[in-house]
Every structure is written in C-alpha cells, then in structure tokens.
Amino acid sequence: MKTKSTIYWNKLASIQELEEFFEEDFQGFKKLIEERIEEVEKFSDEALDKLAKLRVLEVTNGCTQWAFRRGDKECLSIEQSRECSNLVMGFIKRTELYFPSEGQIEFNDEGKAFIRAGRLLYNDGFKNNVKESEREFYAASAAQFIVYGHERVQRALALVKQDYETLFSPYYIERGRKYIARYLEGFE
Fold first, then answer.
1. Could you list the residue range(s) of the whole structural domain that residue 86 is in?
2. Residues in Cβ contact with 166 at an 8 Å cutoff, skipping those fewer than 6 apart
3. Which top-level group of life is the source organism from (predicted)?
4. Cα-Cα-Cα-Cα dihedral of 142, 44, 35, 109, to 10°?
5. 153: in domain
6. Could you give the CA distance from residue 139 to residue 142 in angstroms, rounded to a whole number?
7. Does 95 fall in a domain?
8. Residue-wise pLDDT tens digits, 99-123
9. What is the pLDDT of residue 65?
C-alpha cells in the first residue's frame, strides 16, 4: 500500500455506517479497505481530482435525498430534491461532470468503469439490500476519501459549494461537508 496517509482505524471504526462492519470483523473490513485503497491509488492525480468532485457531489446529494425520505424538517421540496438527484444521477449515468466554473469534465475508460462499478455496488447494497455489497460500498467509500486526501477533498467541497450551493442549499452543502469530515478525521 503506497498511500502516505496515517490511518486511524479506531476513528474510522467509530463512524456510524462503518461500525457494524468493523464490529463483525475488524481485521477483515480493514483489509477490504486497504485493498480498495490499492485500487484507487492506481488512478492519476488528474483522475483523482475528477473522482473526488463526483464523490463530494454524491455525498451532498445523498444528504438531501435521505433527509427528504425521512421527512426532515429542513428537507428540500420534492421538486428541489428531484432536481438534485437528477443532476448527480445524470452525471453518474453519463460518467461525466459539469461545473459552471470549470465546464465539462470527462473521464477516461478506466474512470468510467470505476464509476459504473460504484453505482452497481450502491444499487445492490441499498436498493436490493445485499449486505455484502453495502459492506463493499462503504469500504470503497472510505478508501476513496483516504486516497483523495484532505487537500483534494477540500478543493472539491469548495467547488461544489461555489457552483451548486443554490441548488443543494447552504444547509445541505454543510451537511455534506460534515458527513465527509468524519472520514477525514480518520487519517492524516
């Protein structure tokens, strides 16, 4: 594993959505994350920049969608929630991004395959309730944040805030940032 990060496994293990997987098999889940780190590290810096932007958009959208499903007091309207989802899901389905301040962002074939694999894991884990896919998804997600690193993720957060805060709202931009911050605390 060539990552230069020091990983604080106990901090990662305290993240709510990772807890059960660490509790079931700490060493096995740790090994799975390490394997995913090796996969993500194969991407170029340019590709990692693009993938980090997509991951921040996915998380921000996820915060808005879960809040809507739960009927949170602060949730966006059905129209706003749908617009957020359509934007991000469109990016994932087309395997390309668009930021008003940067323009069109395209992925090479390897990046496209990575995005499609992540989408399949998410669908199997959360739409089809396949527990092993959910475990794999969370391992991959943790690995991505570790490889992307603090600086790259902070740049992606700033870009999403700059270009899409009016869509997601300041509240959900901050919710996404807080969600990601828990992972960033797990390594340095």
1. 9-184
2. none
3. Bacteria
4. 100
5. yes
6. 5
7. yes
8. 999 999 999 999 999 999 999 999 9
9. 95
